[in-house]
Amino acid sequence: MVPPQYYLLLAAAIFCIGLFGILTRRNALLFLMSVELMLNAANINLVAFSVYWGNVTGQTLSLFTMALAAAEVAIGIGIILTLYRNFGDVDVTDAASMRW
Amino acid sequence: MTAPAAFAGLTALASPMQMGQLPDWTALAPVLILAVTGLVLLLIDSIDADTTNSALLAGVSTLGAAAALAATAWSLATGVGQDGGAITLFADALVVDGMSLFFTAIFTSVVVMVTIASYDYLRDHKHQGEFYSLVLFAASGMALMASANSLATVLVSLELASLPSYVLVAYLKENRGSVEAGLKYFLIGALSAAVFTFGISLVYAATGSLIFADIAEALSGGEFVGIAGLGVLMVAGGFAFKTASVPFHFWAPEAYEGAPAPVSAFLSSASKAAGFAVAFRVFVEAFPLATIPEGINWVLAFQILAVVTMTLGNFAAATQENVKRMLAYSSIGHAGYALIGLAALSAGGSANGNVLGASMAHLFVYGFMNTGAFLFIAMVERWGVGRTFEDYNGLATQAPVACVAMSVFMFSLAGLPPFGGFFSKYFLFFEAIENGFWWLAAIGALNSVLSLFYYSRVVRAMWFEDPSGSFELGSQPVGLYAAVMIAAVGTVLLLPGFPPVIETAQTVAGTLFA
Amino acid sequence: MVGAFDFVPAIVLLPFFSFLVALFLGKYMPKGGALAGITATAGSLLLSIWTVLTVAGFTGTATTYQQTLYTWAGGMEGTPLPYELTFGLLIDPLSSMMLLIVTLVAFLVHVFSLGYMNDEGETGLPRYYAGLGLFSASMLGFVVADNLLMAFMFFELVGLCSYLLIGFWFREEAPPSAAKKAFLVTRFGDYFFLIGVVAVFATFGTAAFAGDGSFPALAEAALAGEGGGDVNTLFGLDPQAWFTVVGLLVLGGVVGKSAQFPLHTWLPDAMEGPTPVSALIHAATMVAAGVYLVARMYGFYALTPTTLAIIAFVGGFTALFAATMGVVKREIKQVLAYSTISQYGYMMLALGSGGYIAATFHLMTHAFFKALLFLGAGSVIIAMHHNENMWDMGGLKDRMPTTYYTFLAGSLALAGIFPFSGFWSKDEVLYEALVHGLGGSPLLLAAWAMGLLAVFFTGFYTFRMVFLTFHGKPRTDTARNPHGVRWNVKGPLAVLAVLAVVAGFINMVPVAKLTGLEIEFLHDWLAHGPSGLTSEHYSELTHDYANYSVGTLVGGELGTALISGAVSLGLALAGAGLAYSLYNVPEPVEHTDRLGSAKDVLFNNYYQDEYQVWLANDVARGISRGADKFDQGVVDGVVNGISSVSLLSGSRVRRIQTGVVSNYAALLTLGLVALLVILGLQGGWFV
């Protein structure tokens, strides 16, 4: 059996990749994908430790997380669509009229 | 939710009524009323897709919110979830107690004001049905947050409150400001949600449970301190996003500035209070100071957050030119004050319950005065007056009554004596000192002094400056006026009415520590 | 059982209703609201009589009453406010007696006003009667107050009413300025009073007058060495010294309100108000409020010998000082004003020398005879078509006999001629000062000497006034054909004249000592009441804490009492006799030139106004200029510095909000990492 630390490391790595994507990508869709990665990192933890602790709480929550991620994407795409209509691009740094 | 939990929920629904006592699930009546009202609004919208019948939509939402408020008040008054101990539902996933009812009272009051005000604000807009149903769905999410007793329900209810909020901010989809605000809110929100979820997964990894009481028990064993600590910190980050606390606050100034003003009011009052409601419960119940390993010093994190948040919020607010943006920063500053409720706790501190209760009472008062202030902005936007301080010059000559109300909000937000905001701040600082954190109170007091500067600028502009241009105020928006007046009367009445509020808040907060 | 005490609030509320009625409905009522005021004060008077009878025990056993009516702040569960701020009633012999005096005089003044205001065709009557009603209500509220804070609030209210009524003829030049002066000067004293109230709360945590938990009782316990920990003295002073400071602070309000030196200057100017107002407010009641306050909290003052000495000395000095100024005045009301100041000086002298009963006695008799004199003067002023100059009068004796004889009765009482009421009370005041002075407090002897000397001047100016006004030949046409007065003027005069004659009989100390009869009714009256508020308790206190003991001249107490009475009567007769020889001639002339340069000094009231104006203008302006410099330079500098630093840092802080959402994500991550590092290092997560 794979020791649980490895799952933690895997999850942390995926989380950091997602975070890196958020910090470096200007395309709103890539931003969304990176968030998805981070959520999936959490799912890995939940599922792995569900097995470790011998209960199904984690697995169940991971299902909820997926559903929430889907809802989030749906709304995100909608907002990105209006972004495109108003600013003519999906570059998140374009929308910077309000500051300070 | 696990299968047994669902089953337990079903049995709770089916259990026969006892003599003269309602079944337990009725304790959730406020949440249910809010959710059903949202569905009814969707139904109306689907029957007549392009209805612009504002009166019907706003009326139904206001009625629903008022009914939820009434149910909450009735529950608070009759001691539901308080006298006989907290009512837990669905295998401990939800809990109804004094604190959840107290916060639900805040949310529903704000929703009532916001829906009344939206009647005028949205009059010429299409898709009003969505707007109102989203407000009510978000409100039911907030009410669920206050009742959450498991990290799973915390996550789901938090998202239920957040997702409609993103859409509401971007509701004016032809307006670049609104869309930009919605985008920023959404992106930061998504990032925060990811951090939050990862934090939950770490807490689960360290404890093997999501129910608060079980987490607390597992943590007291002192294992996996590092993982649990990181998890706790990331969970705190999720709440910091919801409450607009530094460093998760970046969305707030833009979202509040760009959003339709009633939505700003809704977010900065109700949504913030919801964040605090769930944060209070999670940190006091799941990570109790008494038993948590010493290595997980979350009080320190909140002390840093509180000081930085109130200072940054107030300093940035002091130099704003745009009134709405100033209010946005002031809202961040107030999040800093409310954080004292968590930052001034100590293991075994004698006044723990009082500090937390004072913070809750401050959020209650804040719900009225801040909503009122944003709704005044909504009215000014409706009139077509500009957004800067200069544009407000001499406004009192045109709309004296509304300006009196706005002055009341400003002075109350600043914490001047004759208004509700004074008592709540006073108690907050006083209890912090009682619990040994005089320096937090001192920093809070200094910030309050600074805040007087920028709040009084609004009052000065309205009453003492000569108008820079001529006003064409046009019609008097009845709904907005009514909502602003409700908020003003609430703010003023909370001065004599403060003792019961603070008593209720401190009692229900005290039971968390018992 | 429903008793008199259940109706005590009505004593206060009835005049208040008459105020409301006069204010809102006065325009539509005949007599401009006067009838409402008369009815209300009559009702209050009847209730007061019932209250006095109850306190005296005519309706059962003698009893007193203390009741908290309303707690308006504090006492909430879980609040940090440690004090209860309340409204309450305290009815004991002292306050019930004062109730009787105030309601009686108020009633008579209301009736008199019918003649003075209504019959003279004044306008603005609803305003006038509203003012009188509000004043009566406030004064009665002050009298029944059971704690210092409530007393302070009503104290301020009577000040306000006084301001409104002095300035009644606000279209003329002098009244508004006199009203302003009265308001400001008394406010100056009240400022100290306010600090005193706060100090009492800070020291004792309560401001109640009576009961075991009252502040005089706590102070006594602290000085007696029991429960000294319950009082917080400030500035590291020991209790005795601190109590003296607190007592002096409250005394500030007393000196202002009772027109004692050096805050007496407002009272003569206040005579610009309508004469009935002068009679009610500036002679019988409001000015008495200061003295009453000292008597009310006498249990506290009795503990601090320094304060007592100051009270006595200020009182004695004021008595003499004001009497000398009264000697040269030309207007009849001015003479009475200075006489009022002088008489309140006597009461202060009595209080300061441990003569609690004497002060109360003089307070009562003075209220009657001075109200009588003012109303009599009012009657003369009606007759003289509002000319107040005594040199334009003369010979009015034959034309208005009722006024003359009643005025004469009041004058005899004022001058202290046997057996009129003023003789008995003034005699007792001087007797108390003398015996306690002889008993080892020589300072009191100096105060006594001044008081004694003032008796001579009192006799002189009183009879100068009588002779100039009523005797001799008429000196002007108006004096030859005076305007008649009606029943509503004569009635009150008659009632008060009877009282001025007989009121002294309730406490004839020398007679009692001479004959051994039990006729010191006032002594018995004030000796019962709630424990700690009786005259016997007070004399123990002055004896224990201020070392006041009784010393005598020849012949023991009886001899001293007789000698003292004889000396003061002799001086009064001498003063009256001098006045007789100078002014009771057909065509009197001014003799003031004989005073030489002293004349100017007296006419100018010892340049009191001038030096106070100089103080206010030059000294205060200099100080305020200095304060302004400090404010502009140091305070503003610091404030401006802080605010510009705040604004500068504010404009820096807000720059982190760049508007670019990617930066936000980065800063958010950085913030989280920073927190992680701090908490991780502190919690040892990384090891």
From TrEMBL, chain A:
Record's GO cellular component terms: NADH dehydrogenase complex
Localization per record: Membrane
GO terms for biological process, alphabetical: ATP synthesis coupled electron transport
GO molecular function, one term: oxidoreductase activity, acting on NAD(P)H
Main localization, broad class: membrane
Residues annotated as transmembrane: 6-23, 30-54, 60-84
InterPro entries membership: NADH_UbQ_OxRdtase_chain4L/K, NUOK/Mnh_C1-like
Membrane topology designation: Multi-pass membrane protein
Domain of life: Archaea
Keywords from the UniProt entry: Membrane, Transmembrane, Transmembrane helix, Transport
Pfam families in the cross-refs: Oxidored_q2
Claim: Transferase is one of the keywords in the record: no
Record family assignment: Belongs to the complex I subunit 4L family.
NCBIfam families named in the record: PRK05715.1-2, PRK05715.1-5
Protein name per UniProt: NADH-quinone oxidoreductase subunit K
Species per Swiss-Prot/TrEMBL record: Haloprofundus marisrubri
Lineage: Archaea, Methanobacteriati, Methanobacteriota, Stenosarchaea group, Halobacteria
UniProtKB/TrEMBL annotation, chain C:
Mode of membrane association: Multi-pass membrane protein
Compartments it resides in: Membrane
Keyword tags: Membrane, Transmembrane, Transmembrane helix
GO biological process, any: ATP synthesis coupled electron transport
Pfam families named in the record: Proton_antipo_M (PF00361), Proton_antipo_N (PF00662)
Transmembrane segments: 6-26, 33-53, 97-116, 128-145, 151-170, 191-210, 240-256, 277-295, 307-328, 335-357, 363-383, 404-425, 445-470, 491-512, 561-583, 664-685
Recorded GO CC terms: membrane
Keyword Transit peptide (UniProt): no
Domain NADH-Ubiquinone oxidoreductase (complex I) chain 5 N-terminal as annotated: residue spans: 83-129
One term of GO molecular function: NADH dehydrogenase activity
Keyword Mitochondrion: no
Domain NADH:quinone oxidoreductase/Mrp antiporter transmembrane: 145-434
Recorded superkingdom: Archaea
Gene3D superfamilies in the record: 1.20.5.2700
Matching NCBIfam families: NDH_I_L, PRK06590.1
Protein name as catalogued: Oxidoreductase
